[in-house]
Model the fold of this input.
Amino acid sequence: MTPPHETVYMDAVLTPNRSLSRKGFLIAMTAIAVTFFMTGLMFLSMGALPVLGFMGLDVLAIWLAFRISFRQQQEETRVTVTARAICLHHKDAKGREKRAELPSAFARVELEEPAGPASWLRIEHGKTAWIIGRFLTPPERSDFAKALRQALLAARAERYPA
Done:
């Protein structure tokens, strides 16, 4: 953590994009369940009893897919830049945490331009690289890389005034 007297040039929390809120999830699952149940009743009235059970399994599979997606959206990366160091704190979807602290004077921000799906945002120090923001879209990675470079330049300017 940073001492209280240290200037923070960037304190960003990166999280995956959330396309559906809790309320939206409940509305979508209700609509899916009602639609599948009504369709299953239609097949039941025609004498196809097993279809109703399979429709229930489909609803269960959709619910599980949403749960897995929501669990993956709990991933979080915090990047803090000061004149002394860049602090990286990553919490994955399972709750495991990783921390790294790099001297801001020697850290580099690397991103292949133009940013594409296969270009990763890396913070490098020596021969070691930390990939951050895997869940960001290419334009978001590019914008974050620019902001991080600006924060590093400001931090170095404080540390090494001209």
Summary: The first strand starts at residue 8 and ends at 14.
